[in-house]
Amino acid sequence: MTLTTVGVLKAVAQGHRYGFSIMDATGLSSGTVYPILGRLEEGGWVRSRWEDQQIAHSEKRPPRRYYEITAAGSTRLEAALERIRALADPAFPSSGTAVAER
Amino acid sequence: MSAPRHRRPGYRLSLLLIRAIGLLVPRWRRADWRREWGAELWHYGDAETTKDTNGAPGAPRTALLQRSLGSVRHAIWLRRRDWRQGMFRNDVRYALRNLIKTPGFTALAIATLAVGIGTSTAVFSLVNGILLQPYPYAEPERLVRLRSVVEESGDAVNVSFPDFLDLAAGSTRIAQLAAVDREPYNLGGGETAAYVQGAQVSASLFEVLGTPLLLGRGFQPGEDVPGGPNVVLLGEALWRASFAADPAIVGKQVSIDAEPYTVIGVVPVGGGYPDEAGLWVPLRIDPGAQLRGNRWANVIARLAPGATLAQAQAEASALAEALAAEYPDTNAGVGVRLISLYDSRTGDFQAMMALLLGAVGFVLLIVCANLANLMLTRAVSRERELAVRAAMGASRLRIVRQLTSESALLAAAGAGLGLLLGTWTVRILVAMVPVAIPEWVDFGIDGRVLAFAAGVSALAVLLFGLAPAVGASADLGRALKETAAQGTGTVRKRRTRAALVVAEVALSIVLLVGAGLMISSLLRVAAVDPGYDTERSFMLTTAFADANYGAPEQRLDFYRQARDRLLALPGVAAVGGIAQPPLRGGWNFMDFIADAPAAAEGATAGAFAHAVTPGYIAAAGIELRRGRDLRDTDSAPGAPEVALVNDVLAERVWPGEDPIGKRIRFGYMDENAWIEVVGLVGGTRQVSLEEAPAPEIFYPYERWASFYGRVTWMVRAAGEPAAAMSASREVIRDLDPDQAVYDLMSLQAAVDESIWDVRFFTTLFWIFGAVALLLAAVGIYGLVAYGVSQRTHEIGVRMAMGARSGDVLGMVLRHGLLLAATGAALGFAGALGLASLLAGALYQVSPTEPVVYLGVALLLGLVALAASLVPALRATRVDPVVALSGGPRA
Fold it and tell me: Has residue B55 been placed in a domain?
């Protein structure tokens, strides 16, 4: 999972439910966010629904498509964030040699 | 979209943009996509308004437009993903539908490919099993066989034990050597007595081979000396079959030749040497008692690390020269040759396998030509369909992909079926091999065979699928302009198809000539008179265990008792014994001197020396031309030495004279000792059917009984030998349950076994020839039939103008026969060039044997005629009225 994908998934997890609000939250363009959302949805990490038509109608606005994280996506996100935290840790890497050789 | 009208400037323009960009999105998701983007843009404008603290009117027009344009990337992404996922599925679905629509074509194409892949996979499995499989030894490339070479004749022979020891001591390029001597053994006793081929070997053998044992340990240095312990290593197969894979076998005692031996280990399948050995015992001989001229040891060696075969050869040659100088009596003119174990094992097969692979290549080429032709014909008849697709916007790439997917589907089906066919073929072929195949040789389908089949299929797809596909899609515009009735394709394409058929015919001619030469060679070999009665004579052999039959009298006594009982069996006409049975790979070729004018000048000659008992000549069905057979009294103490000779010897030594009463002696005998010739017999073939009878001397076995550790009873039945054969085994078992009988077989079986390889390879060539001919016939038929169907209109015109059906028949037949004749001319030229490659495999058949070439020409002519006749007859039934009105085609 790329860092960008983690960013999008995290934004969804934090409650940014619509395409544009995810764009605003992550600072990514629509050309990046939507394909990522599409792939996340295919992978089962995210699911999308349409707002209730009646509610939207009563508020005199078009219904929006919203995205929410799934349980699998949430587990996956935790694991990804854990890795990122480990990478950010100044003590990383613990053994050191592998990186030094590269 | 039922969104309320938005007050923000730019929103409507954005919606229009989204509608337009939405056209990029695959149709099935377009509505959703537009809805989502429209809603987002609506809210974007709205949200911007609420954030607008300056009272400015919502999101600026430019921001909205920017966001709208951002949807292009999303739309393109969706389109590309859909294209990638959907196209493959569509291609396959479309190709399947097309193939099902033309079941005749599909079945023919798949069958052709399956036959091609089946035969080539079968041959490749054989090549893979024999030539490519790695030997199960450690670093097998360092293993060599070391042989003595008689420089005068170039014959490679075994090594004498003293030479072996000297070479081992003097060599630095060779790390280790081991001497091996094959021996038959009687394993176990009583009901379970069994004959086992084994070997007595230097203690170093398993270190030379580098084989890790399955159980126990190998031999140790002190064990291969006279008086060494009775220890034995069992082969895995024997251990499983006779000892139920007893895991505690090490340390147990087994009976070998009626003596107790301690099992010290188990050798894994393929880890021993020679291949056919089932058990190994130490070679416990006294080097001091060995003669330097007695060359019996099969020597296998491991090159020192880093040493090359050439270096080791140079060193061994130098050592051999030193030995020749030191022991001129025995070693003058005797060199040493190192042969890699690989070459030594596969040498006989390498040339044949190369020929087979070549033949398979031809078959594959024919298959590809046939398929290309099928695909071309199909592509031409589909030109209009493809042109319509192109006109509707299908790109050229799309059409090529479509045609290629059809080829790929055909290739996959053909490859699957071909693999099945190949597996069965291999099974049948292997069943044809009557000799024991080493257990580690596996002719199964392994990764390499699969890779080969996949490679061949992929190549076939490229060759027969892509080329016609590109050709077919090249000039679609022109195709559209042509009417269906005229759509015969361009002249160039017609020529291409004709050229393909001509090539097929030419290639199959080459294969047929090869097959024909092999078959006539086999027929000549099989027609050879071996000099025996192969129909009614059979033989059985026993190896004497030293413990019970150490003395010659004991062996003779056993032999005579068995002979008498065998003679008493119902239906048995004659029984005799021989030390080395014919056509079983053993013989004794000895120098002899004849008491004749030519021999007086010191001329000696070699002859097969057969140690036989009285009755053998009659039992084997050898023709006694003059004189008498041996008698029991001939071997009585003090009786004069007598022998029989064959006509080849008599004619060579005493041409035109009666040999009875003449004298000969073997090279080793005293100058005053002579053997009197008492009988003249017809020549027999001892080594192989291909080898013409050489001089032979039949002398009494009884005088030499101590030299031979085994005897073969030759039995001649009065009628059908089957009943006597099964009863004979019981005779030996009744007499001594510890004596195992082996090689119980009819002489016909021995003859068949001796030519199995000729028969085997001939069968393969025959199969290739038949397949090639069939494919060529299909090719001719296809082209001629297609030509007729395309020329229906023309034929109709001709018939309306008064052409008779005979004229039409002749016209179509000429077309087919012309193709065949052109191909045949090329094919015969090629065959004349290539047949010389077969020369080495042919027996009394010249590579230019006219009968074969004539036969092939005749066969091809008939097949071409038959293949053209069906469409030709169909052409004669064309109704001019229907044809001219554009009705159904022939």
Answer: yes
Phi, psi of B335 (to 5 degrees): -105, -170
Handedness of CA B295, B296, B297, B299 (dihedral sign): positive
Q: Tokens standing for B447?
A: 């990764």
Q: Shortest CB distance from A29 goes to which of B1, B39, B70?
A: B70
Q: Residue B185 class from Cβ within 10 Å (0-12 exposed, 13-18 middle, 19+ buried)? A: buried
Q: pLDDT digit string (tens) for B553-587?
A: 888 889 999 999 999 999 999 999 999 898 887 77
Query: In Å, how far are B395, B618, B814 from B470, measured between CA atoms?
Result: 12, 75, 31
Residues in chain A with CB shorter than 8 Å from the CB of B4 are: 60-62
Q: Please indicate, yes or no, whether residues B666 and B733 belong to a single structural domain of this protein.
A: yes
Q: How far apart (Å, rounded) are the C-alpha atoms in residues B705 and B566?
A: 20
Q: Which residues, at least 6 apart from B233, have a Cβ–Cβ distance to it below 8 Å? A: B206, B213, B216, B218, B219, B263, B264, B265, B266, B267, B272, B279, B280, B281
Q: Does residue B558 fall inside a structural domain?
A: yes
Are B311 and B162 in a shared domain?
yes
Contact check, Cβ <8 Å, A30/B67 = yes
**Residue B545 DSSP code:** P
Between residues 5 and 64 of chain A, which touch chain B (CB distance below 8 Å)?
Answer: 18-20, 29-32, 34-35, 38, 60-64
The pTM score is 0.69
Stretch B816-830: mean pLDDT: 91
Q: Given B1, B43, B77, which is nearest A20 (Cβ)?
A: B43
**Side chain identity, residue B183:** E
Is B6 a member of any domain?
A: no
- How many other C-beta atoms can be found within 10 angstroms of the C-beta atom of residue B4? 12
Alpha-carbon distance values, B727 to B406, B542, B578, B579 (Å): 63, 15, 20, 22
pLDDT digits (tens, 9 = 90+) for B724-739: 998 998 898 888 887 8
> Please, which residues have CB within 8 angstroms of residue A22's CB and are 6 or more apart in sequence?
A8, A11, A12, A16, A28, A33, A37, A67
Domain contains B744:
no
Give yes or no for a contact between B371 and B459, defined as CB atoms under 8 angstroms apart: no
Residues B317 and B351 in one domain: no
Rounded average pLDDT over B813-835: 90
Total domains in chain B come to: 5
**Domain end (from B332, B356, B376):** B332
Question: Per DSSP, what are the bridge partners of residue B179?
Answer: B299
Q: So what's the ipTM on this one? A: 0.88
Write the residue in B32, B36, B78 that is nearest to A19 by C-beta: B36
List Cβ<8 Å contacts ≥24 apart for B788-793: B788/B812, B788/B871, B788/B872, B788/B874, B788/B875, B788/B890, B789/B889, B789/B890, B790/B487, B790/B488, B791/B488, B791/B875, B792/B878, B792/B883, B792/B889, B792/B890, B793/B485, B793/B883, B793/B884, B793/B886
Q: Supply the CATH number for residue A30's domain.
A: 1.10.10.10
Q: Which residues of B touch A31 (CB under 8 A)?
A: 70, 72-74, 77
Is B337 an interface residue toward A (CB < 8 Å)? no
Round the CA-based radius of gyration of chain B to a whole number and report it: 40
| C-alpha span between B604 and B594 (Å, rounded) | 7
Quote the CA–CA distance of B745 and B715 in Å, as a whole number.
10
Non-local (6+) Cβ contacts of B739 within 8 A are B186, B193, B542, B544, B545, B558, B732, B733
Structure confidence at residue B547 (pLDDT)? 74
- A vs B, Cβ pairs < 8 A, gives 55
Exposed, middle or buried, B668 (CB in 10 Å: 0-12/13-18/19+)?
exposed
Domain hosting B594: range is: 546-737
What radius of gyration do chain A's Cα atoms show?
Answer: 17
Between CA B347 and CA B368 the distance in angstroms is: 32
Domain boundary among B332, B361, B386: B332
